[in-house]
Design a protein that fits this description.
The complex is a heterodimer of chains A (296) and B (382). Chain A has 296 residues and is mostly helical. Chain A has one domain: MetI-like (MetI-like fold, Orthogonal Bundle). In chain A, 75% of the residues lie in helices and 1% in strands. Chain A contains 13 helices and two strands. The longest helix of chain A is centred in the N-terminal third of the chain and has 34 residues. The mean pLDDT of chain A is 90. Chain B folds into two domains: 174 residues, 3-Layer(aba) Sandwich (Rossmann fold), CATH 3.40.50; 124 residues, OB fold (Dihydrolipoamide Acetyltransferase, E2P). Chain B is built from nine helices and 20 strands. In chain B, the strands form four sheets. Chain B has a six-stranded mixed beta sheet with strand order 6-7-8-3-9-10, with helices on both faces. A five-stranded antiparallel beta sheet of chain B has the order 13-12-11-14-20. In chain B, strands 15-19-16-17-18 form a five-stranded antiparallel beta sheet, with no helix packed on it. In chain B, a hairpin with a 2-residue loop joins strand 9 and strand 10. Chain B is globular and about 75 Å long. The interface between A and B is medium-sized, with 20 and 25 residues.
Amino acid sequence: MKRFGLISVPYLWLLALFLVPFLIVLKISLSDTALAIPPYTPTLDMSEGWAGFTAWLSGLDIENFTWLTQDDLYWKAYLSSLKIATMSTILALLVGFPIAYGMSRASDEWRPTLMMMIILPFWTSFLIRVYAWKAILSQEGLLNQLLMNIGIIGEPLTILNTNTAVYIGIVYTYLPFMVLPIYSALERLDESLLEAAEDLGCSRMTAFWLVTLPLAKQGIIAGSFLVFIPAMGEFVIPSLLGGSKTLMIGKVLWEEFFSNRDWPVASAVAVVLLLILIIPIVLFQRNEEKQREAGK
Amino acid sequence: MSDAALATAPAEFAPWEDAQATPLIRFQNVTKRFGDFTAIDNLTIDIFEKEFFALLGPSGCGKTTMMRMLGGFETQTEGTILIDGQDVAPIPPNKRAVNMMFQSYALFPHLSVAENIAFGLKRDKMPKDQIAARVDEMLNLVQLGKFASRKPHQISGGQRQRVALARSLAKAPKLLLLDEPLGALDKKLRQDTQFELMDIQEQTGTTFVIVTHDQEEAMTVASRIAVMDHGKIIQVDTPAKIYEEPGSVYVADFIGDVNLIEGNVTTSGDDHATISWAEGQQDLIGIAHDAIPAGTRATLAIRPEKVNIATEKPADMTNIIQGKVHDIAYLGNMSTYVVETPTGQLIKAQAANTRRIRRRAITWEQDVWLSFTDTAGVVLTS
């Protein structure tokens, strides 16, 4: 009984803060928009008993989901998000792996400092950091001034309000999520494994490909999902750093909710986004389980 | 212990006594420093083909550094290391015909047992069918055929040790280095594995260099032992010689149990030396190959099992010590008697328990006579 009580805490938490909100959103996505508060119909009227419930049920339909397939804005936004999230993940991996590798090879007295440097940005608000990038990337920003002063470029580059700025923002923001799992995988790597590989005829380079990389694989996969999943639904970065041409589903979702006040369509967009993300989330979970087993 | 050692080194196999034999490995005045610390101090030694050579010493004595230099993971600061007549300093580990079995085994956790063994063969671009055949051969050698497809974390510690051995032998190296190969195994398994190691060494004819801090292990497996301390080799000899005729007090004390009796040399010569060591006790005589000037301070080292204990004074023994039983340790198959001499020195004697304990003639506080022959102990000056 006591055990049951203990286990039920996280489940209750999930039920209250994830499943119930999700069901509400799902319900709204099946409703119609209306000029009312809340801005959709039908709403459940309990005073009429069973008849009220059936009436409420018959008022629900999948019209909004069909609408998502009819207007090409939505699937274009999904695809564009997918592309941006994938590219950002690859970029974050390319930047993050060498950092994690360097950290794992660093001497013991340096490691806590390096770790601190990776975590330190979290001490400042995410929003402020993204705004800071605006100051860096704008036409008169720090980056352009620097490059022009050195004389590399004659005219300022247009980076802010382009997809490039969005990539920079996402890679910057989610880099720690890439670095930390890879670092934890590489840190556990026993130095003698590399010596054994060399002893058996590998050059340093092949030892890296045949031993280091395969053993970091789980970390790479975990890091990639941790970047990909939030990047897919990212809203703040594209709206602050991206331009009018930057199409991301998070931004579309926000516009449907707050500009259009079309809660049902916005909810449908959210439900579909969740369904898309379930695949990588399940894959991520499997990877974690595998890692736990291998660690035994 | 020494019987087993003799079994691995039949009388014919003693290339170190043959002036014509060319050693496989030559360390010539090798010094290795890490910053201020001297790990290996001007060391010269030859190791011959097909030897099972043990580097024995306490931790930090430089034995692992020596092995890592052979493997190519460290480069000497001074001196030359030759393997098969070739200076190996410029050769990286992956180009040496030397393989190493790591103390941690260093098995690749993401590869199966068979893939681990095949790892080195694949690097040599050996054809696939030959690799498969060689892997099978190795699996049979270490009796792990059934576990070929398991991952390292799915097998026991003893099995992992054998996979590591099979992997390091797969490429048929000229020289196999073993870094504390049995250190992680429990005592029973370690003893079984020692004999297996010896069999495998004989079967494959590979030269083995083993690093160990366990003197029993070194005695069991090795054809020759180098006892090391502070980056220097104190003595290199067969296990029997090391045990019976240690060249110094350090070696005598490091290997096995020993009585060390200090005294002044009275006479010396004819392979023997006599020391006077305590008032009221007769002088003791032991082996000393080189003549020692009279009056030199020296130590007689004598193994407890070579000391005879009796309740009556033996008539025809060269060395006799009188004393009183101070303590008795019953070890089952034998007992160790600690005898106190009138001058307060404690000397150990061991006797096999051929009779049941209740019929034992010797008991606490009893006056006894210890005796041993003139070839049982050695007189050491260092």
